[in-house]
From TrEMBL:
A purine D-ribonucleoside binds at residues 238, 280. Pfam families: PNP_UDP_1 (PF01048). Residues 58-313 form the Nucleoside phosphorylase domain. SUPFAM superfamilies: Purine and uridine phosphorylases. This is Purine nucleoside phosphorylase. The keyword Transferase applies. The gene is LOC114249594. Its EC number is 2.4.2.1. Signal peptide: none annotated. It is an enzyme of class 2 (transferase). It comes from the Eukaryota.
Length: 327
């Protein structure tokens, strides 16, 4: 079989309108690094392509406790013919520092579909700038990924949500972006996408519809919701006042990830499905004694592991069969 090259994949998948790279690596003042160059990411993708025999169609980001660590019965463990590559072995890759985030890419198959799963993601609170948190998404693009399934653990702010519910992400509010912190900040490379990408169809309508149908088929529709996610910088959980403010602006679930990954994916024309596991109830009044904590987040992830594995496996199959040109 002829070796696969990341450059060839992107040239086939998108219009290459700009051959000469802008100077990515510094901002307009020439000091702050704002992204890896296209060539650097091609180097990373080519390293990975040299280790696998089939390029992935679907990328999966495993959220906290949702297969983000290697555990019997987890989503990542259900990947067959798995090739596992630790982040520290991958050129230019950051490393995972969060408990419950294993730190490896797993290539293989789910329901016969070629996938790559991130067991462990990168968060802003770990000290990584947003462009670095999203580096794997661009690498996925260079590997040939067309669909991203981004999962996360989140606090349920909508009073109707219960711990253990799943929320199909209908939309997000980019709170960090309001203050100008955006993964696309800095010079734009048209080979990934346009300077001003639209974001009104960030979460694919067809996939959301399929996800609701699959929930019915699996008899889990009573715990599957659909709502708006927001990401805060973390690492602290929110104050009561902050949560009440977020509630007022229409947020249903709160986390510390996903939004920037989705923006990066949509920028380079990867279709997106987002799924939150509601791991804790957001505390919105001062009388409540409970406090949010990461242990609870991981425990609920473990509790829902088997269901998530089944649900996401079915979604992988159905998404891969869906009309690739659906909006
Ligand atoms: O978004 P994921 O990585 O699933 O994890 C969520 O859970 C952790 C807090 O318990 C934070 O990292 C938050 O972002
Ligand atoms: N910001 C935030 N992230 C979370 N991840 C899991 N639960 C929560 C939460 O309540 N708030």
């Amino acid at each position: 079989m002829a070796p696969i090259n990341a450059n060839d994949i992107v040239e086939k998948n998108c219009l290459v309108t700009q051959k000469v790279l802008p100077e990515i690596g510094s901002d307009c003042n020439g000091n702050e690094k704002t992204g890896y160059s296209y060539e650097t990411l091609v180097e990373t993708a080519n390293f990975l392509l040299s280790r696998i025999s089939e390029k992935p169609n679907i990328g999966i980001i495993c959220g906290s406790g949702m297969g983000s660590y290697w555990k019997e019965g987890s989503l990542a463990e259900s990947i067959t013919d798995g090739v596992r590559i630790p982040y520290e072995d991958i050129p230019n890759f950051p490393i995972s520092t969060v408990e419950g985030h294993h730190g490896q890419l797993v290539f293989g198959h789910i329901e016969g579909v070629s996938v790559v799963a991130m067991q462990g993601r990168f968060h802003y609170y770990e000290g990584y700038p947003l462009w670095k948190c999203c580096l794997p998404v661009r690498v996925m693009k260079l590997l040939g990924v067309k669909i991203l399934i981004a999962t996360n653990a989140a606090g349920g702010l909508n009073p109707n949500y219960k711990i253990g519910d799943l929320m199909i992400v209908r939309d997000h509010i980019n709170m960090m972006g309001f203050a100008g912190n955006n993964p696309l900040h800095g010079p734009n490379d048209e080979r990934f996408g346009p300077r001003f990408p639209p974001m009104n169809k960030a979460y694919n309508y067809e996939f959301r519809k399929i996800a609701k149908e699959v929930a019915k088929e699996l008899n889990i529709d009573h715990i599957v919701r659909e709502g708006v996610y927001t990401c805060l910088g973390g690492p602290n959980f929110e104050t009561v006042a902050e949560l009440n403010m977020l509630k007022m602006v229409g947020v249903d679930a709160v986390g510390m990830s996903t939004v920037h990954e989705v923006i990066t994916a949509r920028h380079c024309d990867i279709k997106v499905f987002g799924l939150s596991l509601i791991t804790n109830e957001c505390i919105t009044n001062y009388d409540q004694d409970a406090e949010a904590n990461h242990e609870e987040v991981l425990d609920v992830g473990r509790m829902r592991q088997e269901m998530l594995r089944k649900y996401v496996s079915c979604l992988v199959k159905k998404f891969s069969q869906a009309d690739p040109d659906a909006p």
